[in-house]
Design brief:
Strand content: under 5%
Number of helices: 3
Distance between the termini: 40 Å
Number of strands: 0
Helix content: over 70%
Largest sheet: none
Structural class: mainly alpha
Order of helices and strands: HHH
């Protein structure tokens, strides 16, 4: 069901009209004075005000919780996107390094083999840290 939202003006108008009708009925039908009527209304009015205040506080808190949840979800999604971009970059660099090293095996020096092994170790360790996220 759709919730009906009224502006504060209309809520105040409805409450004032209801209060006026009740006052009229109490004064003319029940033959009670206005002070006697107000004595009867003090407790219910206080309860209504407390109830409205509590509801407003709960709605504000719920809105804040939803906003925090959305921010956390957005941060997680950004982290996933960064991880995916990093993984694509690492895959491409690995491919390029291996292609360059294997395309000219005669020119491979001990230092280039060492760099290739270090690159592969680095990729394995970074893959482990990415999968743990």
């Amino acid at each position: 069901m759709g919730a009906v939202t009224l502006s504060r003006f209309w809520v105040a108008t409805i409450v004032a009209a209801t209060f006026s009708i009740i006052c009229f009925l109490v004064y003319f039908v029940a033959k009670k004075s206005l002070w006697e009527f107000l004595d009867l209304l003090i407790v219910p009015m206080a309860l209504a005000i407390i109830g409205f205040g509590f509801t407003a506080q709960q709605q504000a808190r719920q809105t804040q919780i939803e906003k925090q949840r959305d921010e956390r979800a957005q941060a997680v999604e950004e982290q996933r996107a960064q991880n995916a971009a990093l993984q694509a970059y690492l895959d491409q660099m690995n491919h390029l390094m291996l292609e360059k090293t294997y395309s000219s095996p005669k020119k491979a020096t001990p230092s280039s083999r060492w760099r290739r092994r270090e690159l592969q170790r680095g990729l394995r360790s970074s893959m482990g840290s990415i999968t743990r996220l």
